[in-house]
Design a protein that fits this description.
Elements lengths: L5 H7 L1 H12 L8 E5 L5 H8 L5 E6 L2 H10 L5 E5 L11 E7 L8 H11 E12 L5 H11 L5 H4 L11 H11 L2 E9 L7 H9 L1 H5 L3 H15 L8 E8 L4
Parallel strand pairs: 1-2, 1-4, 2-3, 4-5
Antiparallel strand pairs: 5-7, 6-7
Length: 251
């Protein structure tokens, strides 16, 4: 399981926070619920969720140790429960009123298992509202990254590698949600290009983390720099967001 540079991510993740605002707007809350933040990262977005839960509680889960450590530092322990788990295997002590996720599900290889765990995490009638990378997400950027990876000295490590991401279509996602037992399923794609304020640090931390893990330490910086140069200036990342909403049947 990949770990992250949580400190840098906290600094450069303004685009993710902007996406989260729109996702949270789709989650109806009265303010006293217990909500699962599935992939809480550094806790930056969890704080936004807590603002909408003045009398509520958040169960914040992430698979990356550094993200969990950062979130524990940032969040009020009286209002949050933070722990590390694979989202495709996560099990809660008690079901929650709602589940929220932002910019995470595309890192989970098995969406069937993921949605089954989200279903089990919810009380009857509980809602899942999420957004992640969808079909076509950062395709242009990945072509540039692949082109650089085909060159020496990177080719022995990266040539032919297709990556771990799972950018699913709305149709396939709806099928998987239906199979998990959800109703009132809604899925759609939303193009959302991003021009990061710190191109190299954003790309190194967010987009190329898995690439860099495959490279020797001395090649990681030069590879990231070469990819940014290949993309041209200003760097525009061709993000496509997959919006997800669903409900567990019940009261």
């Amino acid at each position: 399981m990949r770990d992250w540079d949580a400190r840098t991510y906290e600094r450069v993740s303004t685009p993710q926070a902007r996406w989260a605002e729109k996702v949270l707007d789709r989650l109806p809350l009265e303010g006293s619920e217990t909500v699962l933040d599935a992939g809480c990262g550094t806790g930056r977005v969890t704080k936004m969720l807590l603002e909408r839960l003045p009398r509520g509680h958040v169960v914040a889960v992430d698979s990356a140790p550094s993200m969990v450590a950062q979130a524990r530092e940032a969040l009020d322990p009286a209002r949050t429960t933070v722990f590390q788990a694979d989202l495709a295997e996560v099990a809660l002590d008690e079901p929650v009123d709602a589940a929220f996720s932002n910019a995470v599900f595309h890192w989970v290889p098995d969406h069937g298992a993921l949605f089954a765990r989200m279903f089990e995490a919810l009380k009857p009638g509980g809602r899942l509202v999420a957004q992640c990378g969808g079909e076509g997400n950062v395709e242009r950027f990945h072509r540039h990254a692949e082109a650089v990876g085909e060159r020496e000295p990177y080719a022995p490590y990266l040539a032919g590698w297709t990556g771990p991401w799972n950018f699913a279509s709305p149709e396939k996602t709806a099928e998987r949600l239906d199979a998990a037992g959800f109703v009132d399923v809604g899925t759609s794609l939303e193009p959302w290009p991003v021009t990061p304020e710190e191109p190299l640090e954003f790309v190194r931390t967010v987009c190329l983390g898995h690439h860099l893990e495959l490279l020797p330490e001395e090649l990681r910086g030069p590879y990231a720099e070469a990819v940014v140069e290949e993309c041209g200036s200003p760097l525009e990342l061709d993000y496509v967001r997959l919006n997800i909403s669903a409900r567990r049947p019940g009261v």
